[in-house]
Structures are given as structure tokens and as C-alpha cells.
Fold these 2 entries.
Entry 1:
Amino acid sequence: MPREGPRGYQKPWQRGTSGSTVTARVSIGPPAATVHGLVEAEAALAAAGPGGVLLLSAPGAAGFAGPAWFLAMVAEAAARHPGVPHRAALDCGDAAGTALAALRAGARLLVLDGACPAFAAVAAAAREAGAAILPERPPALDLGRLDLRRRADMARLAAWLAIEAPQEGGTPPAS
């Protein structure tokens, strides 16, 4: 039986019919890599496949590093790797004010804890600004835990970025 995520919620690809393993693989967006600086953002872009990569900030980075730093870092990494499909998500923790400041600074994809009392209001502001808010961090490979000078760790990053998460409605394995 699939394990449940936080608050008892199961991701769509964790559900199966009659406890079966879901085998169909359909992209639900690019895989995410947690980046802490320019070197890691560049490594993620260099290793990204044709589906691209989601550059995800460290948890709560909007509050301690600020949106301007993150947006500038992503822009510089993208300029050094033109044509690589990517998105950038800035994690605001549970700080609604920080999320609103990030929207004003130009961030277009944020992570804001879904349990934040002001989540709905911030989500409405994001929609008006043409931005989106995720209520939880997507699964991501934390590049701060890798030594990107090592060939094995670069291979691990490349393998992670090649993953596609299956969605609900997949085909159960043949009996």
C-alpha cells in the first residue's frame, strides 16, 4: 500500500487501483533540484534534459536570502545556459508577507505552506499577478548535499533530472 504524505494526503502517483503499482509514466512538470547558489543552479541547468528543471530554493530562502538574490541567481544561471527549459520556485516557508514581497519583486512561482492562515489571500494575489503558489515543496534533489565536482554526484543529478513522476490513472501491471 502506498505511504501517505504529510497530513494524510497521497500524491496522485502514490495511488493505485486495488493496491497495484502504477506503471504509466506521465510528466507532471520538470523534476526539481534544490539550489543554494549559482554553481548549483548552473549544474542543474547543464544536466537538465529536454523536459527542463525546476530550480527550487532552499526551504524558507525568501525570508533569509530575499527574492532579489534568488531571481538574479536564476537569471545569471539561465544566461549561462541559454535555451534550457526551466522554472524557478522561491520557498517562502509560512511567511505570507514574504510571499507578497516576492510577488512584488517579480517571482512567478512560490512555495507557501498550505497551512498558512493567509494562503488563500496570497494565492489570490498571485493569480492577479500571473503567478502560481505551491502549498508544499515538490520532491527535489538537494544539491547542497552533493559534491558537484564528483562524477558520481553529477551522474546522480542527471539521473534525478531524467525522472518523470507517474500520475493517477496509470495502467496496472499485467497479470
Entry 2:
Amino acid sequence: MNSTDYPFRLEKQAMTTLIIISVFCALCSQADAASTEEIPAEKLYEDAFRLIVEGNYAEAYDRLEEIIVKYPDSVYAQFAEDRKRRLEELNLPSIRRRKIDRSGRIESIVFGTLYTTWLGIGSARLANAESEKAIAAGMMMGAPAGLLASLALTRNARLSKGQSALINFSGYWGTWQGYGLAILLDGNDDEKTMIGSAMAGGMLGLLATSILTRKIDPSLGDASMINYGGIWGTWLLFCSAMMADVEDSDHLLGIALAGGNLGAAAMAALSPKVEVSLARATLINLGGVAGTIVAGGLLLLTLPENEKTVYATLMAGGILGLIGGCYATANFDIRTALQKSGYENLNRGMVNQTGRTNSREIQVDLLAIGF
């Protein structure tokens, strides 16, 4: 071996040794980082499993989502993805409202376009523009402005169908409330006052609910309960006022407005405590409508002379229809969830004699499908 080659060999060996040491250190640090991720991810996964056994599926879903977001490189993130998908397949309302989506964007864009069309017409009327051309111009400016504004405002927004439905409800409900208050407060029934009040009420409702839905995510069932609660509250208190011989039109309007607000508020307070789908809420409402129609048919057959009897019968028919709809659809959402999820083994004993969900049955079946 030439003495001049010796230093080069030493340098080559030193470089090889450094590379080996560097690779070893990198592997060690990766293993260290992986183990650092594994420990909290494992704890969260154990918490999710415990919550499932306890029947708290919504909180378990949140724990699984937290694992996926915070520890994406851990092995538990893969487990969490699979388990989260299985929970979603059960199609329980408490899980559906946890899923982040933007499915309500289209509904909001449609409503925004229609609502700004109304604002364009109303603005033209407020500006003393009574000609057809001015009103047409208001429509032509309002619709595209609403469309473009809705597209821009919802582009990156988290907006579920439930949130969209609640915001849309607040828009038309605020418009109705503003219009009604203008009639009560302005004895002259000035057109500008009523239009301006209706526009202000609608915009205030939209603004308030837009802020509120940043903190809450109601399901479509929740939003429909609030909607139907407002409508039924208006009708039932109006009937009550007629039965109480309230003759003044302003008093009747005030009672109807208050009844609607009470009904909507009552359903807003009740909806988080019960899990009702849009389909079931619609069927319950249909039961009330059917009961009112049957009561109307009885009135046509009997032709009572007393006006109080007419309103009492209509009111009783609606209430009985709503109660019948509630009882007839007691297990509707559970059966629908079972059919959609395909877990036919959940069908055995899932509902006890009181109509409540037997969460223990769901727990056992979740364990059986590999949670």
C-alpha cells in the first residue's frame, strides 16, 4: 500500500463512520418522535373506546377526530379513521351534527339571492320610486348582488345544512316580525314604515343567527323543529285569542307574533335535548296539519254556530295530530338509522318498551364490529 494513499483511506473511513452515525441518530430521533406521538394518541384512543362503551358517541367521535388532527403520523390515527367511519355509518344524529361540512352553502346562496331581490324591490319603494322601471331596476340589481355576495361570503365558510336552514328561517321570520311590529306601532299603516321595518327585521335576524351559528351546529331536524314551532305557536295562540273573544285586530296580531316567538323559543330549547331528524319533524308537523284538516271536516259536517267552538275544534285537532305524530314516529329515526347503516344485528333489542334507545345494545354491537 502506497504511503500517500493512507490519508485518503482514513478520510474515507471517517466519512463512512459519520454517515452511519448520522443515519443512526436520525432513526433514533424519529423513533423518539413517534413514541412521543404514540403516548397521547393512545390515551385519546382509550378515552374514545371508554366513551363508546358508556354510550357517549358524539364525544367519542370528537376524540377520534382529535387523534387524526393532532397525531396524524401515529398508528392510532389510522385506527381512528377506521373507527370514525364506522361511527358515521351508524348514521346517528349526534354523530351527523359533529361532521364538518359545507353542504348548506347552496341553500344559503339560493336564499341570499331571493332575499336581496326582495331588498332591491323594498329599497326602490322606500326611495319613492313607484314606476315599474324603478322596481324592475331594484330586482335586477338585487338578485345578482345577492348571488355574488352569497358566493363570496360562503366560499370558505363552514356551513352545514342545519346552520343554513336556521339562518334562512331567521331571515323570513325576522321579516314577518318586523312587518307585524310596524303595524302595531304605526297606527297609520304607512307603507314605507312597514317595508323598512320588514327589511330591518329580516337583516337583524340574519345577522344575529349568523353570529350564533358560529358557536352552534344545529341539525336539520333542530332547525325544522324551530321553524314548525314558530308556525304552530302563531296559529295556536291566535286560536286561543279568538276563543277568548279578543276582537281588536292589533291585539290579535300582537298575540300571534308573541305566540310564534314562544313556539320557536320553546323548540330551540327542546331541540338540543332530543335528536329529531328532518324527516321525523316533517311527519310530526304533517300529523298536526292532518288533525287540523280532520277537525275542519267535522266542522263542515256539524256547522256549529258558535265561533269559539270552531276555533276550539281546529285547535284541538291540530294538537291531537301533533301528539299522534310524535307517538307514531317514536322509533322512526332509529329504524332509519338501522336501515341505512346496514347493521341488522342492532335491530334486536335496540328499543325497549318505553321507546328509548338501548345504548348497551349499540355498545355490544360496536364491539362486535371491531371498535
